[in-house]
Amino acid sequence: MVISTNTSAQSAASLLMQSSSNLSQSLARLSSGSKITSPADDSAGLAVSMKLSAQIARTGAASNNVSNAISFNQTQDGYLQQVNSALTRMSELSVSAQDVTKTTSDRALYQQEFKTLGAYVNNVATQSFNGVSLFNGNTLNVTSDSEGNTFSNLGVNLKAASYTTATADDITSISGAQKALTDVKAAITQLASDRANIGSNEETLGYYNNQLSSLKNNLAAANSQITDVDVATESTNYAKQNILVQSGTAMLAQANAMPQTMLKLLQ
Predict the structure, then answer these.
(1) Do 217 and 237 reside in the same domain of the chain?
(2) 12-16, 50-54, 69-73, 163-167: range with lowest mean pLDDT
(3) What are the pLDDT digits (tens) for 217-260?
(4) In whole angstroms, how far apart are CA 249 and each of 5, 10, 109, 238?
(5) Is residue 2, in this structure, part of any structural domain at all?
(6) Among 97, 115, 231, 237, which one is least packed by beta carbons within 10 Å?
(7) Nearest CA to 211 among 7, 107, 66?
């Protein structure tokens, strides 16, 4: 046994340093809630987690885009429901104006209402959603996933000839009323087709929205497996490392006292 080199103390100090490092790491995990508090903890897991986190963020953004597109279509259909009511009334006026017992003055009154309803339909054609035209007929490419793929959201054109011809008709004469009836019926047929397209858009976008929501949840669960700390397991590990630090500190003190025993041999 020698005094100048205390190998027992050196060994105890080394083990105490390891236990202290493990204790600090366990404390950091518990306080942060993450298993990876530095790249050294799990470099491969960190790389995978970063990619998953980025995809989760992109998926959330795509989900917002789809939700906004659904709102766009719902707003369109809300307007078109009123347009349908207006066109239905215009067709009724067109038939009423063909009544042979009505005078020119009567038809003029019908025409006034017909004209007002036509102006309403033309005004709806100018409406927009957050600055984006609702009824210019353009197809909108809606981002449908985290990779930037798109869904073609079919547009509605209220300035199409089938609508503008009907709204421009004049029912102050029987012949004019007959023509107006034909034109308004064509407009109603076009409106039915347009609303069917909107319904198809909403249905498909709803599927995309549900898909994105499910994907986001699954990605978050996968990322959690990599990064989130198991509190029960880590608490047990913390208690273990804490005991090792305390016992290591005590044993280092004992190892440091061993040379004092050697000095007694010199007395």
Answers:
(1) no
(2) 12-16
(3) 999 989 888 776 767 777 787 788 778 777 878 776 776 767 66
(4) 19, 12, 103, 16
(5) no
(6) 231
(7) 66
Helix pair angle (174-227, 43-96), 10° resolution? 170
| Long-range CB contacts (within 8 A, 24+) of 54-59 | 55/146, 55/219, 56/216, 56/219, 56/220, 56/223, 58/146, 58/147, 59/145, 59/146, 59/212, 59/215, 59/216, 59/219
| Per-residue confidence band for 49, with pLDDT thresholds at 50, 70 and 90 | confident
pLDDT at residue 2, rounded to an integer: 55
The beta-carbon contacts of 246-254 under 8 Å, at least 24 apart in sequence, are 248/12, 248/15, 248/16, 248/19, 248/20, 249/16, 251/12, 251/16, 252/9, 252/12, 252/13, 252/16, 254/12
pTM for this entry:
0.78
Q: If we measure between CA atoms, which residue out of 198, 207, 187, 188 comes closest to residue 77?
A: 198
Which tens digits make up the pLDDT trace of 11-32?
A: 777 877 887 777 677 777 777 7
Of all residues in the chain, what percent are helix, strand and coil, respectively (each to 5)?
Answer: 75, 5, 20
**What whole-number distance in Å separates Cα of residue 173 and Cα of residue 98?**
8
Q: E strand or H helix at 125, and its extent?
A: none
Considering the domain architecture, whether residues 23 and 139 belong to the same structural domain is answered as: no
Q: Is 101 helix (H, G, I), strand (E, B) or coil?
A: coil
How far, in whole angstroms, is CA 50 from its chain's centroid? 19
Q: Is 228 helix (H, G, I), strand (E, B) or coil?
A: strand
- Take residue 194 and report the two structure tokens written for it: 């347009």
What's the pLDDT score for residue 110? Answer: 96
Residue 182 sits in the same domain as residue 246: no
223 lies in the same domain as 236: no
